[in-house]
Design a protein that fits this description.
Chain lengths: 149, 731
């Protein structure tokens, strides 16, 4: 058993505490917006926030997430209102297949919290998610647009 | 929200068949019988493509798959152009391949590969839109008792100006559905297009930014269990034994099953538990003779093919061998291109539910009909008892079309547990090991010049793997053992025609197949052929001291569309003028998938030659007609991420018969910091030429443009991919 706080809501989950957080979020809490891409913290599709920091949830275990505030893509823009990052993504038509985009948006949201007006260099350093469709050109445009919004 | 997520398509078909009021008319595109379909009690079908609800919602049905390339948006534009409905009221829906089959393939080809989504269906989907419009107008005219020719239509509103009356599409859809489909349908002249050619926003973005879009891996069905699988990592090997008792007591493990003769799966409550049990399961494989194969042994086999007597001639004119023998100057080079994995972000997966009289699968598939065929063959049930529910893909790139191995696996597991839906997801490692790989190829190119430095002869000898020999052996048989696809970009004519005219030309292929299964990898054979051809063009030009652009221009005189894209990128990058300090340019072009494409790269290289920054790529595309320039722009920019990742970072090497690279740590993919600025030029030449695709062509020009620029920067000619093997990194 583990108790997790995800998107402000408490979850008592019947899960081995050594399970990767990603799979507890997806399979026990049932929040599938957070994606599995590699399982070894390379691609960033599983990015969530833990106490506001972007973390790759595939490579940390449930036990280490207990007592922390976890935010997933479903926890952004609650009540049908998009965050400025999500809105910039819509305005710039960023996603192609979209599979990596939840992780991308979580990584960008954490970056903008830490650096509200990131330079291209800041973006290059902070955003290391893989996108096989290759949306990077629109991602960069949308980050700058969200920073201005 | 996208309509496809809300409709139970099986119910839809059954209720459709039951609605016998004759209120809907099937319109027969591209082939097939008359069908009667109502999506539900209030939504009659105008034809296979168009359903209009009383509230004016327009549901456009399409069977090509959305995997990020924007095809559903482009197809909707094509239908709406002729339908003249309100774009803001458009929703899209996937009919199932089972429904299509039941209506004699009313929706035509489901296959979404080869950049075919739009270029191969534009005519019949536009006709579907036009026919629906004509029926709606006629229904309004009938109601008003006026000639249809006196009515006009715009944005889903029909107007009879003389009597100042209007009707909305939703008001006449029911009556229109009772009318006969028109026999003659005339399409608009392209100059009158209002929505085709416009940069419309994608129809499917919102759910992708909120995490709401359901991918195959996200699917939940009542009572569903999860499966993880391990197939013999040596292709062709078999399962010898496995000790299910070792894991059957683990928490939530429901079953350990052998799948076919080469794989073992664990079924558990959750996927993580299934995967953990699979990792703990002792499995012994009989790896067979292929265990002895390595990259070195494959390379040796291909090298032998470069000089082999027997080869299939794909393109020739004059007598290249004789002309080379008598040439004043001869230039020769050997290139190579590796195996590569598609590595879409979403690993292979499929969900299957089998009962004694029904088998359904939910599949992120590039070809619903291929998935259906896999369900039929692996379930053993007749076609009418099988169906496939398509799910939007988390990337495809050619892995999820012709190959349905994961669907077969899911059905086989589900057959062991009738009545229980089974979701099979591959781990990334399984996905990397069990790819259908970009074919491996070597190439020896020989050029001959006369005393005036004219290129008089060119021999291109390909040696390596044939995709069709493995995947479509019947086509190879029809061609007396030759794989015609291997000559993509180098062919005599057609959608992959070579642009250069050389008086004595020979392009031939020594087929050297390996035990590694090849596949259609985004761009397919143009990727290696463009590296070979376009790098060697630079080598030839440099051998006779000519400008690389001028040298090409002389050989492209008979192919003005090739020349036009090349000139466009050269002009925009500033070819012929000195580049900024420390910057170097490279060019490449090709005709591929009926589109003409070119790229000019601007790079800088560190002093030791080991770090390359690709600053900028100018890319031109002439797709003949451009349906959505904004989406083409994104496909082009994205193609360079795919192509440059492949050039710098990606190869699948063979060790002891298996693929050695198992995840993104050893099979890396470009990040945002490495992304060049992509400036795309979309230059549709129009007219009646077959339309070109846009999902793949520009991938192939990325690598040679950068390699040519690298030579300019360093004087070093790199002739093998990837550059990481030369300790050259993209920064």
């Amino acid at each position: 058993m583990a108790r997790l706080t995800i998107n402000g809501k408490g979850y008592d989950l019947d899960v081995d505490p050594q399970t990767p957080l990603l799979w507890a979020i997806r399979e026990q809490a049932g929040l599938t917006g957070t994606k599995y891409g590699c399982g070894i913290a390379q691609c960033g599709a599983c990015t969530v926030h833990m106490d506001g920091e972007a973390m790759r949830s595939c490579s940390m275990v449930v036990a280490d997430a207990e007592g922390k505030q976890i935010t997933t893509i479903e926890g952004l823009g609650q009540g049908g209102v998009l965050t400025k990052v999500q809105q910039a993504w819509v305005d710039h038509d960023v996603p192609q297949c979209g599979y990596c985009q939840a992780g991308m948006i979580m990584a960008v949201s954490a970056l903008l919290k830490a650096k509200p007006k990131p330079t291209d260099g800041d973006i290059d350093d902070a955003i290391t998610n893989i996108c096989r469709c290759g949306t990077f050109q629109q991602v960069r445009e949308a980050i700058h647009a969200a920073a201005k919004a | 929200m996208n309509e496809i997520t809300r409709i139970d398509r099986r119910t839809f078909l059954v209720s459709a068949a039951a609605a016998s009021g004759g209120l809907a008319v099937g319109f027969d595109f591209p082939a097939g019988g008359r069908g009667v379909v109502r999506a539900n009690a209030s939504t009659p079908e105008l034809n296979a493509w168009v359903v209009i609800k009383p509230d004016d919602t327009v549901i456009i049905r399409m069977v090509r798959s959305e995997m990020g390339q924007g095809t559903i948006t482009g197809l909707a534009q094509l239908v709406v152009e002729e339908l003249e409905c309100d774009w803001s009221k458009v929703k899209t829906e996937y009919p199932t391949p089972g429904q299509s089959l039941a209506r004699k393939r009313a929706w035509g080809d489901f296959s979404t590969g080869g950049s075919r989504g739009i270029r191969m269906s534009h005519e019949y989907v536009r006709k579907g839109g036009a026919a629906a419009r004509m029926m709606l107008v006629r229904a309004a005219a009938n109601q008003w008792n006026v000639p249809a020719s006196e009515c006009s239509v715009a944005k889903g509103v029909i107007t009879h100006a003389a009597s100042n009356r209007t009707l909305r599409y939703g008001e006449v859809a029911e009556a229109a559905g009772k009318l006969e489909a028109p026999k003659d349908v005339t399409l608009k002249d392209p100059k009158d297009w209002k929505i085709i050619g416009k940069p419309m926003k994608r129809l499917d973005t919102l759910e992708k930014v909120t995490g709401a879009q359901i991918y195959g891996t996200d699917l939940k069905l009542p009572g569903m269990l999860n499966a993880a699988i391990r197939e013999c990592p040596v292709f062709g090997g078999k399962v010898k034994s496995f000790d299910a008792a070792k894991v059957s007591g683990m928490k939530s493990v429901r079953k350990v099953v052998q799948v076919g003769d080469s794989a073992v799966a664990v079924v558990a409550d959750t996927w993580w538990q299934a995967k953990s049990a699979l990792d703990a399961l002792p499995i012994e494989f009989d790896e067979g003779e292929n265990k002895k194969v390595s990259s070195a042994s494959i390379d040796k086999m291909l090298e032998e093919g470069l000089g082999a007597e027997q080869a299939f001639v794909g393109n020739d004119n004059g007598d290249a061998k004789a002309a080379i023998a008598s040439a004043v100057k001869k230039v020769e080079a050997v290139y190579s291109y590796p195996f590569q994995n598609h590595a879409p972000m979403e690993p292979m997966n499929a969900t299957a539910l089998y009962t004694a009289d029904k088998c359904e699968a939910w599949v992120p598939t590039q070809d619903g009909e291929a998935s259906l065929a896999a369900v039929i063959s692996s379930s053993g049930l007749p076609a009418e008892k099988c169906d496939v529910h398509k799910i939007n893909l988390g990337g495809g790139f050619g892995r999820r079309g012709a190959f349905q191995d994961y669907v077969v696996q899911a059905v086989r597991i589900a057959k062991e547990m009738p009545g229980t839906p089974i979701k099979l997801i591959w781990s990334r490692e399984e996905d990397m090991r069990q790819g259908r790989f970009h074919p491996i190829m070597q190439c020896k190119l020989t050029g001959g010049f006369d005393a005036q430095n004219n290129l008089t002869a060119l021999h291109i000898r390909l040696s390596g793997q044939s995709i069709l020999a493995a995947v479509r052996p019947a086509i190879v048989q029809q061609n007396k053992g030759m794989d015609p696809l291997v000559f993509q970009g180098l062919a005599k004519g057609g959608e992959h025609a070579i642009g250069y005219t050389v008086p004595n030309l020979l392009i031939d292929h020594a087929m050297r197949n390996t035990h590694v299964p090849p596949g259609f990898w985004r761009g397919v054979n143009i990727n290696q052929n463009c590296v070979f051809m376009e790098c060697f063009m630079d080598e030839l030009a440099q051998a006779v001291g000519q400008d690389e652009l001028e040298f090409r221009r002389k050989l492209l005189g008979k192919h003005p569309k090739n020349l036009a894209v090349l000139n466009a990128v050269a002009e925009k990058i500033g070819w012929g003028k000195p580049p900024p300090a420390g910057r170097f340019y490279g060019l490449a072009h090709m005709k591929a998938f009926a589109a003409y494409v070119a790229a000019a790269a601007e790079i800088s290289v560190s002093a030791d030659g080991k770090s390359v920054k690709v600053h900028r790529i100018v890319a031109a595309t002439d797709p003949i007609h451009a349906v959505n320039p904004a989406q083409i722009d994104r496909q082009v920019a994205g193609s360079f991420v795919y192509g440059l990742s492949a050039l710098f970072q990606q190869s699948c090497t063979v060790k002891d018969g298996c693929i050695a690279e198992e995840n993104f740590d050893t099979y890396d993919s470009m990040r945002i910091a490495q992304m060049p600025k992509v400036e795309s030029i979309i230059m549709p030449s129009g007219g009646s030429d077959p339309w070109g695709g846009v999902g793949e062509p520009t991938i192939c020009v990325a690598a040679p443009a950068v390699l040519n620029a690298y030579f300019k920067a360093t004087g070093k000619r790199i002739r093998s991919v990837p550059l990481k093997d030369h300790q050259i990194a993209m920064v």
